[in-house]
Amino acid sequence: MLGVLGLEEAQESAYRVLVSVGAADVPELARRLALGEQDTERALRRLEQNGLAAQSPGRPGRWVAAPPGVALGALLTQHRHELERAELAAALLAEEYRAAAGEPAVHDLVEVVTGAAAVTRRFLQLQLGAAEEVCALVTGSPVAVTGMENHAEEEATARGVRYRAVVERAVLDRPDGITELTAALDRGEQVRVVDRVPTKLVVADGTLALVPLTARSAEPAALVVHASGLLELLTGLFETVWREALPLRLGSRGVSENAPDGPDATDLEILSLLLAGLTDASVAKQLDLGLRTVQRRVKRLMELTGVTTRLQLGWHAYERGWVARDR
């Protein structure tokens, strides 16, 4: 079973016996394994190299097993990294093969970018080169660049580039999540929220896209996709997620004058975050309000709209234009 981690049968058997008995010397272990002492010694040395066993410092000649959760977990992680690097190498070799086969036009439609610095550079270049619109799917775990480091976004919006972003609900729970999103909304960007986005994605002007290639644990890598059927597929994916997402409203941007007894800017922020799925406690924390203040304001809005449930309040909020959404 542990052969996929590079262990031979004798080594796996020796490790299993050590785990079961706690500690054993070579002769005892050889009897249990029905192996010669030399073969048993060799298996133990191999386990030692893999961090699965060690000689007892207090009792020379005795061998003890490393905790499986730690030792095997480290081996699994190492092999995952090796597999991911092998997958990346295979992808690069496939690109080289296509180029050598005389298909430069097809080869140029997709390029592989590896390394955090390279991915960050292309991510910023996409935005700096955009002329009309940038669309993005944002997860709660940035790898190459965080929102606070994305100065290209500020520069692009200053040039009049439109931004549409769909963020995971986890983004709202990050310490700087609300601050970043409020700043984005204040720049005129459109932001919507869903439980989870299918992937990280950036599309610039509908002509260029950046999408992750590898898992979170591996070295960051991404595909840069040029105009092609794949780009159309990624653009369609964004539009589908966008249509299903809920708009986010934070800060005072775009808040119209309301009647004296209507909702104020804070009420609208609370409504937007509640509709995005946050609990009362999370809303209070993110807006730096007391929990009772949030609950009192929600109760007042329910009385104002004449409803008895929060579900009804959400419906009335859309009907009254307190929370805008495309029909």
TrEMBL record:
Please verify whether the record's keywords include Ribosomal protein.
no
Coiled-coil-forming residues are 76-103
InterPro entries per UniProt: Sig_transdc_resp-reg_C-effctor, TrmB-like, Tscrpt_reg_LuxR_C, Tscrpt_reg_TrmB_N, WH-like_DNA-bd_sf, WH_DNA-bd_sf
Q: Domain of life here?
A: Bacteria
Domain annotation HTH luxR-type: ranges: 260-317
Q: Does the keyword Ribosomal protein apply?
A: no
What are the protein's UniProt keywords? Coiled coil
Protein's UniProt name: Sugar-specific transcriptional regulator TrmB
